[in-house]
Here is the input.
Amino acid sequence: MTLDKLTFLSSPFLRTIQTSNDIIDGLVNTSSITEGISLNEVKILPEYSVFEWDGKGGEWHASLPPIEERPHYFPRVDASHESLFVPTIPEPRDKFHDRCTKAAEALSTSYDYVPNTAIVVVS
Here is the structure.
């Protein structure tokens, strides 16, 4: 089986964008599954609903550079992507699991099943 479409949703943190970019690079060079896709055109969609809990009271998220800067370093990042939702920061720890459930539900209703399509979420 080969894929017809590949979508990458990534937490906006630098390390997850780097991981997404590296996975796409690896697929470009090694995978017969993706031979029908122009992987140089696969975009990384910054998805705020899937980022991890900030155990520092919002400090980690406050230090995130604007997403508009990321395409300068990672051209695959689509800064125009609209997240499913953006959590309120700081987020109490007891609300983190509720957000994860909400994100999973939003992902399953926002992205329909399409044969030969893969959606990769990196968080």
